[in-house]
Amino acid sequence: MAEIIRMPKMSDTMEEGVIAQWLKKVGDEIKPGDILAEVETDKATMELESYDEGILLHIGVEEKDSVPVNGVIAILGEKGENIDELLKEIKSGGDGEDSKESKEEPEEESETTNSESDSKTETQEIDTSEINATVITMPKMSDTMQEGTIASWLKKVGDEVKSGDVLAEVETDKATMELESYDDGTLLYIGVEEGDAVEVNGVIAIIGEKGADYETLLKAHQQQGSKDADKEKTAPKEEETEEKSSPKSESKPEKAADTSSSGSNGRIKASPLAKKMAKEKGIDISLVKGSGDGGRIIKKDIESFDPAKAPAAVEASGSSAVVGQESYRDEKVSQMRKVIAKRLAESKFTAPHFYLTMEINMDKSIEARKSMNEVAPVKISFNDMVIKAVAAALKQHPKVNTAWLEDKIRYNDHVHIGMAVAVEEGLLVPVIRFADSKSLSQISQEAKTLAGKAKNKELQPKDWEGNTFTVSNLGMFGIDEFTAIINPPDACILAIGGIRQTPIIKDGEIVAGNLMKVTLSCDHRVVDGAIGSAFLQTIKNLLEDPVRLLI
What we know:
By secondary structure, this protein is of the alpha+beta class. 31% of the residues lie in helices and 25% in strands.
């Protein structure tokens, strides 16, 4: 008897899983313990193991597609077993009564649009079984990713692709990552141009046998979307096909005729490495001629670029054409910047912020740091000392180490300090875990490692998840004082200004003192003024007498 394989709940927070790769195909014999597929959850990529034996009769989820917990993934059974009725039951459970009626009377012509659509879907599914091609969709590359931007295509239509080949570079909200192929075949279709964004699970490309009917496969993929998407797509399918093929047809002549690195929309076509090198060398990349595919600027173009030749073309046109001329350029918002904008806007306009500012005399901290660095295995910074003081203060004031969860408040017993790090595309917040139990040397080493990973786009999900409090330091940029927006789900964030010498009164005399201003941003739904003030006072006491940090 056939057995339905459903998506298991592989973590406490998992709501759905993405089939990263099928390791078995329809018709394969399965034994208990065999790995059916690799599943990408909200925490990691894990193996889906079979607990039954039989023949894999049906696969209900394509690679790169997501399915909710308990959703049907596959069906196992005996060889030749008829599972049509079982499939009808599964489909009717999601499609409702209309789909039941249309499937019970397949020979009768239906006058309603819904039944026509259902019958077409069934026919389309049968047709795709004979098409030797695979739809490549946008994978979810981070826990917060909602869409990705194709930074550059490394393959073009017609290229032979092998499993493991890198198809494209994808810019997510966290980093620029490589999109790897899990299939062999020919790249038949590219659905997203360079520089354009596509939502997670959106169609990127199709790989398959040369000459395969990928257009039919595209239609079938569209019909397998959600009910809302199906309703919107009940318009004639020919128009949709024309709309999707038109960008492709327009891009081909553009690539053939392109002799420069600029596209028709003014976007510079260059690899991420070339852009990075140009910025480091101070080269205006728009002046560089690309030698890569379609005029794409690559590493060797930057290395061989002669800046002395570029200004000559500008001078030849006459200085009057340049002086006083208005100009501007528009850049597409990066995925990282989109997520930062969304999360911080939600925080600012959802959480009622209030701010507490305090001055801290850092004279003793300066002396202590100098002494510690004479024996410390790594150089300890003032930021490391602040993180240690914050961690110790959070243990004394647990009401600050909290999170607002709408219908409840979470009091965290552990202390994970988020450390805001500025990178070119925005702001990342790697997390120092259990900071209260670590020494200053350990905090310093971990902070340097995480900051380096952030700037090199090497952070993994475990590096940025789980913060219970955040510290943002702009003191090294000469900022005396600022207010920071709370980093969800934290209840507070501490903004650190620079240390500056200023006159203070000590023992009745005016002397030079080293003062540092800190500002605590609080979510008033969780933290009140008295609680925040007491927390700041504890930090002040710890930094003004840093021996207490060692206790």
